[in-house]
């Protein structure tokens, strides 16, 4: 126990606490965070890949009722016939399209014999900073559209909807929030128009199929979590060895004798 008493010193205790805390964070927070992002990205990439090779299906096969949602069918192409509720149109602000700022134009769409669903018509570019440009109204009357299913987004904390330039604006495509703003019940998934559709604007492209670095980052945090206590153990072992070496003193600590001193000692003893 005396050999390990140095571990109770403040410096070593602080180091041990830091290593334990770091290891805990690696396994409980940092690695799961990156691995979770990898799982989410891989799932979305798989959905996109399937959507690109699958023919469109009627919307009502995936969203049969007003309260329906289809998280497992995100990016799937669907067809629907109905009419736009043009007076309920609003904008999602601070979006990016093609690497540049954009507004996304959102409007409810009442499906014939089906639910009312939010439709993302596409994007428009802001004017003079963040001013809303003139936006053409969607067509009136019955139209048929083809679009991709999308999941509702999470609201942005601390960012409330507001009205500017005579248009209501939101910070995320949160379907529940938009349903409250417009007073129109909406299905749990929304639609993003593909190109050449009635009422379509700038087309929002499909994300690139890139898994990203999340898996390698997750493995790195696991590796750091394993290495940290091993390195602490190595430092403790090195300290113990150094303390043992200090206790072992050499038998002769003087300077080595010269040749004359050795001869004097030898012949002096003989006399």
From TrEMBL:
Q: Which Pfam families match?
A: SURF1
Q: Name one GO cellular component term.
A: plasma membrane
Q: Which InterPro entries match?
A: Surf1/Shy1 (IPR002994), Surf1/Surf4 (IPR045214)
Bias-annotated ranges (Basic and acidic residues)? 259-271
The listed locations are: Cell membrane; Membrane
User: Mainly localized where?
Assistant: membrane
Recorded topology in the membrane: Multi-pass membrane protein
- Which residue ranges does the record annotate as region Disordered? 247-271
> Which PROSITE patterns does this UniProt record tie to the protein?
SURF1 (PS50895)
Q: Which PANTHER family does the record associate with it?
A: SURFEIT LOCUS PROTEIN (PTHR23427), SURFEIT LOCUS PROTEIN 1 (PTHR23427:SF2)
Q: What family is this?
A: Belongs to the SURF1 family.
Q: Provide the protein name.
A: SURF1-like protein
Q: Which organism is it from?
A: Mycobacterium fragae
Lineage in the entry?
Answer: Bacteria, Bacillati, Actinomycetota, Actinomycetes, Mycobacteriales
């Amino acid at each position: 126990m005396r050999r390990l008493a140095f571990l109770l010193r403040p410096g070593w205790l602080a180091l041990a606490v830091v290593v334990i805390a770091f290891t805990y964070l690696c396994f409980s927070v940092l690695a799961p965070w990156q691995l979770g992002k990898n799982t989410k990205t891989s799932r979305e990439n798989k959905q996109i890949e399937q959507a690109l090779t699958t023919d469109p299906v009627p919307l009502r096969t995936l969203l049969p009722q007003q309260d329906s949602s289809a998280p497992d069918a995100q990016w799937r192409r669907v067809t629907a016939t109905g009419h736009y509720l043009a007076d309920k149109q609003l904008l999602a602000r601070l979006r990016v399209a093609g690497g540049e700022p954009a507004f996304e134009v959102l409007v409810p769409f009442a499906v014939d014999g089906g639910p009312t669903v939010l439709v993302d018509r596409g994007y428009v570019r802001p004017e003079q900073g963040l001013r809303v440009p003139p936006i053409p109204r969607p067509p009136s009357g019955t139209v048929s559209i083809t679009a991709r299913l999308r999941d509702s987004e999470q609201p942005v904390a601390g960012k409330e909807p507001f009205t500017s330039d005579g248009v209501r604006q939101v910070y995320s495509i949160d379907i529940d929030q938009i349903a409250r703003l417009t007073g129109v019940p909406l299905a749990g998934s929304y639609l993003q128009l593909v190109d050449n559709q009635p009422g379509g604007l700038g087309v929002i492209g499909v994300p690139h199929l890139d898994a990203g670095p999340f898996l390698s980052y997750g493995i790195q945090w696991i590796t750091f979590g394993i290495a940290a206590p091993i390195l602490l153990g190595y430092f403790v072992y090195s300290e113990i060895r150094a303390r043992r070496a200090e206790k072992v003193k050499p038998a002769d600590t003087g300077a080595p004798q010269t040749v004359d001193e050795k001869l004097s000692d030898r012949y002096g003893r003989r006399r």
